[in-house]
Each structure stands twice: as structure tokens, then as C-alpha cells.
Amino acid sequence: MTAIPLSRLLAVGRPDDAPVADGVTFARFRADVAGNAARLKGCRRGLLVAADGYWGAVGLLALLHAGAEVTIPPNAQPGTLAALSADGAIPVGGDLGDDLGGNLGPGGEGMAFAPLDPETPLTFFTSGSTGEPKRVVRTLGMLEAEALATEAVLGRLAGPTARVHATVPHQHVYGLNFRLLWPLVTGRPFASAMHELWETALAALDAGSVLVTSPAHLTRLAGIAPLPPSRRPALVLSAGAPLPEPAAREAAAVFGTPVTEIFGSTETGAIAHRRREAGDPSWRPLPGVVAGRTPDGRLRVGATHVEGRKHVGSDLVEMAEDGGFRVLGRADRIAKVEGKRVSLPEVEAQLRRSPLVADAVVLTLEQLCAVVVPSAEGAARLADIGAFRFGRLLRRELSAVQEPAGLPRRWRFVSRLPDGALGKRRHADIAALFEESALPEIVMPVIATHRPTAPDVRAVRPLADGVELDLFIPGDLAQLDGHFPGMPIVPGVAQIDWAVTFANTHLGLGIEAAQSLQVKFRRVTVPDTLVTLALRHAPARRRLTFEYRCGDETLSSGSIGVEGIAP
């Protein structure tokens, strides 16, 4: 199908029956954009927070055709959205069918779409080196050029009607371009839902499809059998961090095709690619991209889809003989944690905003680690609740503005930070605080070696036939080990155990073990989340029912036999 730039997609149009997503035709897509553009008319700035891919695409084009400025928040954490909404920006698409979809707004029928201005700005955020998220403005024309450059390289690998699946969200440049914009521009249908588990992702794939994924997922393929030819994708894309060689080999064996990696940044978009057929090949610039090296060794790129057409990044590189380049490391303090960019200065600055913290430094030692100097108030709290719970308290504060990857997992609390000559802080001195032997004298009582096995109870409310509890599930639960690295998920057996434990505590049931149980898992439950657990006892039926919810969404539910308890 002919590629159509996003700025002219609705003005030029495609056949009414052309597929867009999950059985949705282009005619329906056009109507949904028209109706919601009418609803959003007069909106000055919109925050695109739709989690569903289809409604994310509708929301993006509706905001653009309504004349609104579009901002893609760095995450959907409450604190982040509150800060970005302070000047009147409207979150769009928070829930399927609420802000977008469902009833179309008035005046959208038969709307005539004029081409959009390619210079229309879109605002993204990336991890900055100053302690604050860096605002990056890219134009619609830049995103179009990136999508066309992507098609020039990948179009020969993916058929014109290949369905695009993803395990990554569209709330960042990589996910937005490869999960939504590239399919829209080239006419390929895409899956609305993001696959959170390999079970659903692999079941959805068919021969010739495209999978947009990341190292956080591709490093968790151990034990999965190779796909049969009828389900092998034609193209597997990965970005966000270099894919380790063992994971690249395992992915090729499972999917029957080598992984194609994408290199880029929020500032530049995709600028290079490499196909992991063997070893560690160099990165090859996309069409229209010129790559070079600055005198201090950093990557310099020029491209039509780069702001100002030139950009000097923080990656140290060496130029390869084949015209590509090899990445040697980063020159700044942006760390890759679980495949996500985390600004260490940003996390430090957010910690210092807490009244409990006087100073802080963050580093990566396989995990994200933090060394904190408590304030007077923080020192008193530390002495009262201990280092273990104090670290969890700081994690909860950070969770309002940081995604799980940006939450430190190891903590040290000190009376002062170790400084070297001329006041310079050395990484080795900070890292030494995490050595288990001979901790320096400046270290206060450090984090306990035991780890929690149950969530924190934040509130308890009686029900007519049971009890309802608000639970915060911490990210350092012992049950999360191995389930799964890089993308922790609360095991179902832990949820059942908690239901029994809290039923015994709050309903006095005395259940020794969960027997004769039924359970249904509707959505995955992730750590660092506040959930509600409803427990109801039906004595006549000798059953305990439970339901875990996050907001209005049911995560899991089931029932447990209580045969040994008298009615």
C-alpha cells in the first residue's frame, strides 16, 4: 500500500475498507478522529495518555486536527500528570471510551480534513542531565520523515499487509513511531492492545507479522519452544538498550528470524539499525542520516528528521570501516535500567525534594542504588521505623513521579556523603558503601537483610459480609524473585496466600491452606501499586471469595473452600 505522510493521511484518505486495527476499518477510524476532533475543539493543549493503541492513534490525530498542542507525558504516574496539567493541559484518553471513543462528539460527521502543517510541534520528555526531565519538541514533519526512513529499510522485510504487534507502550518515541505511526503511514494494521506477557504475544503472532519489543522482554524467553512456521514473524524489532548476545541467539531460535535492533533517542528518533545475525555488528545509519564522531568521541548525526538537522549525543562511538559505527558507552549519567532510560540526576533531585532527605546520590550496581543523607526530620523517622521501612517510604514518595525502573532497590543511609580531593565525588567511594564487608563508619544502620513477603495495609473497611483492604505492594517483595527479571509480576500463588492470611486476620476464619479453590486472572498485577482486596465470607456455602482491584478494574478474583470452618 502506498505510504501517506501523517499530515495528509486523513486529507488524502485510504479505501474505506482498509484495515487499521483489530477489525477497525479506515472509514471507522476517520469517523472516530472526526468526532473526537469536534469534541476537542478549543482545547489548547492535550496530554496524550491513552494506553490502548487504537485510541492513542485516534487521540493523537484528533488533537492535531483540533488545533491543540500535543504533549506525550514521560509516564502516566499521578504526580507527573498533575504537574503537566497545572497550566490547563487536558489529559486525553486516560480510559478507553471515556475521553475518546464511545459516543462521538457533535459536529464530527462529514468533517472535511485539511492537511496538517508539517511544522506542527509535538512535545516529548526524556531523562535530562540536570535533574529535571528534559522537554524535547519535535515536529510532525520529523516524525513523518522518520517513518518513511524506517519503511525504506524495514519495508522489504515486512510485507505490505503485515500486522504489527507490540510489547512496548506508545508513550515514548520508539513505541509511538514503530507501534503506531509507521503502520498508519504505510497502511499496515496494528494490534490495539500492548502484550504484557509472552503467552498472549506469541499466541497473537502469525506468519509474516511484525513484533515491536525490547530487551526487557527478549531477555525472558528461556524455556519457550521455537514457534512453528505458521506463527513466525517476519520482523522482530528491539530498542531501548543493546540486546545481549545470548538473548539475541535465543530470540532468533524462538522466532525463526534474527532480531533487528533500532538505535536512536527522543531527540533524534530512530537513526540507525542492525540485524543481529551473528556477533556484534556495527550500527548502519537509516537513509538520510549522516553519522560522524566529534573530537571528544561522541556521536554526531545529521538527518532531515533531527531538530536543526544536526545533533551531538552522549554516546561515545568509534566509526566502523563499513560506514557504520560502534557504541562504546555513554558520556553522561543516563542509565539503562530494565531497558528504560533513567536519569540519575533526576532521581537524586526528586529525592532531595523530600523533607526527609538532605542529600542523595544514585548509581547503578546491577540494580538502581541510592545513598541518602537524611534531614533532621528524616533521621528521627529513620530511628523510629528502621532503615528497611525508611527506604520503602522513600520509594513510595518517588513512585508518584517515577516509573518502577526509576525506583532504587538498594539503600544506604549515611551522615555525610564521601567526597574526594577538591570536593569531587568518586563513583568508587559511593559504590564501596554497598560492599557487605567493612562498611565505612559514616554509614548509619543499613537496610535489613530480610525482605517483605506481604503488602502494606493502608486502610481497612468493613463490608456487610466481609472486609475490604487497601494494599500497597512494594517492589522488593521476596515473591518477585524470578517472576520475572526486568518486568516483575506478582505471582498468583502470592495473591491467594494473601487472601487467606488477611481473611484469617480480619474475618477470624482460621484457614490453614487454600483448598478447593477457583481463580481467574484478568490482568497482571505489578509491584509498587496500590490495590484493593475485597474478602467476602459466605458461611452457608462454606466459601471465601476474593477480588483484587486497581481502581475500577478487576485484576484477579476467585473463591476458596473453607470446609473446616463451621458456618
UniProtKB/TrEMBL annotation:
Q: This chain belongs to which protein, by name?
A: AMP-binding protein
Which Pfam families does the UniProt record give?
AMP-binding, ApeI-like
Tell me which residues make up the AMP-dependent synthetase/ligase domain: 115-282
Q: Where are the transmembrane segments?
A: none
Q: Which InterPro entries match?
A: AMP-bd_C_sf (IPR045851), AMP-dep_synth/lig_dom (IPR000873), ANL_N_sf (IPR042099), ApeI-like (IPR054545), HotDog_dom_sf (IPR029069)
Give the record's family classification: Belongs to the ATP-dependent AMP-binding enzyme family.
Q: What range(s) does the ApeI dehydratase-like domain occupy?
A: 466-558
Q: Which domain of life is it from?
A: Bacteria
